[in-house]
Amino acid sequence: MTRLPTLCQRRLGALLAFALLLLALPVFAQDGAAVSTVNGEPVAREAFHARVRLVRWQHLRELTTLYELTGGNLALGAQYASRLAASLADPVALGDAVLTEMETERLLWQTGEQMGLTPTAEDAEAREAAFFSLWTNVPVSNLAASVDAQVFITDWYAGAEAASGLRRDDIAVLFATEALRTRLYEHLAASVPTEEPAVRSRHILCSFHPQNVADSTPPTTEERAAAQSCIRGAQARLATGESFAGVAAALSDDRASAPQGGDLGWVLLSFLTEGYAEAVRDAALNTIIGPVETEFGLHLVEVLDRRVQELTAGELDAARQGYFDLWIEALRADATITRAPDWDAGVPAEPALADLDAPVLEALERLRAR
Fold first, then answer.
1. Residue of higher predicted confidence among 122 and 23
2. pLDDT at residue 25 in the model
3. 196-310 has which fold?
4. Residues linked to residue 288 through DSSP beta bridges, in sequence order
5. 3-state helix, strand, coil in the chain (%, to 5)
6. pTM of the model
7. Which of 53, 135, 180, 275 has the smallest CB count inside 10 Å?
8. Proportion of the chain above pLDDT 70, given as a percent
């Protein structure tokens, strides 16, 4: 597989980071009719439309930069390029994503103020400097003295203002939002345990979708009946004294664990799908239980051992991020968010893909034709 150069990968990372920043951009000018209210605080249609235009403009810049970084071969960043193009082609879906993030952002600012965790101006400036350091490949400490970096920053803000109608100060607030997210994340992450219960178990899976075991689409009546028949066959073979490992190897649709007799090894409970985790949490050791139903199918399960284990750095990062995401979901669930019935009226479709330079547009068309 062709790999992008390291610098190209870093720049692609900057592109993605900025895409997320834009979706979180708070614009506090709230003149005009509201498209949504968040705990009584309005999101003005004018501000919403300006944000959409800004996101669209940046998506076009990202496609152009990706074209430059890959030497015109967008296939090297096919998934990212296709996602950007699809987003630009569906203004209402993009508008929905932008408005959802604007609503979430207001919740974060409201909560940050309540918790006394709002960022300082220095926090926002540090975020801004780090971002433009990535884009210009100039160390943060040298940004102010670099003529090229300052030209890039000035041109970038000028382009963003022209495309969106926002002022530089409005746009710059996005870095304060990222600083706010970081402060809230760090505050919540401090309470995430550094160890978790883990289980070693083995299973026989009769999938609802044997041809695509990862498919979590609810089963049809026929698919459920087929999984039930498979489970009954497994139970019958176990009842005759055949080993669990042998039946798993022969029948389990989880082809990754089947050669190991269905053994999943040690897995944190929080990393297991919900129905499976609930079943193994308190099940007796060395006892076959089930069928246990999950979104993936029906399982016969045997818990071999349990322990509490220290999280690795990667596991801890995943646990903290998962906790933060759930916390944001809870904020939204507890909030009063009311969208106007016509929130999607006049959602901007400009700037558009047709505004790309001809070579970039041609490369995108070649990618689509693959």
1. 122
2. 45
3. Chitinase A; domain 3 (3.10.50)
4. 302
5. 60, 15, 25
6. 0.75
7. 275
8. 91
